[in-house]
């Protein structure tokens, strides 16, 4: 399996990715905010996504969004093809897109909203902490992205203070040192190539 930073060669998978995002949200009864083909195409073309493939087939996907003039970064739209679930693919993709976020935006806070326990676990392993919504970007465009979610009415009734999603946040300066211990670079093997990952 190959897990790569996206490029134009991955555009052939954009329709499948969009459809699986929609289908997955329908099955779970929760909302991944729906994204247009044009939006996903731009993310892939700009190298702001990670795509996993195997033998020419699409396996998984996740992309980067920036908010509040680059002060916040979200790793969004994590999705794995049904045929490849429960194999650790989501963890590998999340690690890769997190690394890409840290390289492109080293000073940005990295955040996510999720209802999935598996994603919460992955985020926690990367150094994210659960936070209240006021700790996230207050960029209106970000919150407008929730309009396609089935739970949007709940979010608005609660004045955007909370919803069914758990907010999680990685703050770079909090993770440069942990209890006085410097963060060390460890390596993860992607396709026989070593990639660095932040860890204690």
TrEMBL record:
A Pfam short name: Acetyltransf_1
Entry keyword Transcription regulation: no
Quote the Gene3D superfamilies the UniProt record gives: 3.40.630.30
SUPFAM superfamilies the record matches? Acyl-CoA N-acyltransferases (Nat) (SSF55729)
InterPro entries associated with the record: Acyl_CoA_acyltransferase (IPR016181), GNAT_dom (IPR000182)
Question: Keywords, A to Z?
Answer: Transferase
Protein name, UniProt field: Acetyltransferase (GNAT) family protein
Q: Which organism is it from?
A: Chryseobacterium oranimense
């Amino acid at each position: 399996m190959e897990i790569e930073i996206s490029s134009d060669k991955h555009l052939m998978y954009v329709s499948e990715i969009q459809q699986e995002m929609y289908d997955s949200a329908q099955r779970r009864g929760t909302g991944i905010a729906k994204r247009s083909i044009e939006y996903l195409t731009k993310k892939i073309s700009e190298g702001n996504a990670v795509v996993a493939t195997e033998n020419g087939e699409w396996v998984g996907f996740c992309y980067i969004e920036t908010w509040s003039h680059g002060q916040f970064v979200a790793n969004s739209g994590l999705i794995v093809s049904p045929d490849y679930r429960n194999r650790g693919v989501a963890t590998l993709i999340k690690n890769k897109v997190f690394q890409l976020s840290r390289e492109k935006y080293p000073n940005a806070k990295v955040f996510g909203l999720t209802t999935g326990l598996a994603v919460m676990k992955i985020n926690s392993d990367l150094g994210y902490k659960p936070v209240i919504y006021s700790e996230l970007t207050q960029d209106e465009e970000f919150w407008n992205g929730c309009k396609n979610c089935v739970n949007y009415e709940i979010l608005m009734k609660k004045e955007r203070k909370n919803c069914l999603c758990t907010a999680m946040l990685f703050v770079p300066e909090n993770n440069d040192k942990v209890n006085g211990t410097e963060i060390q670079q460890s390596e993860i093997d992607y396709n026989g190539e070593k990639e660095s990952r932040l860890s204690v």
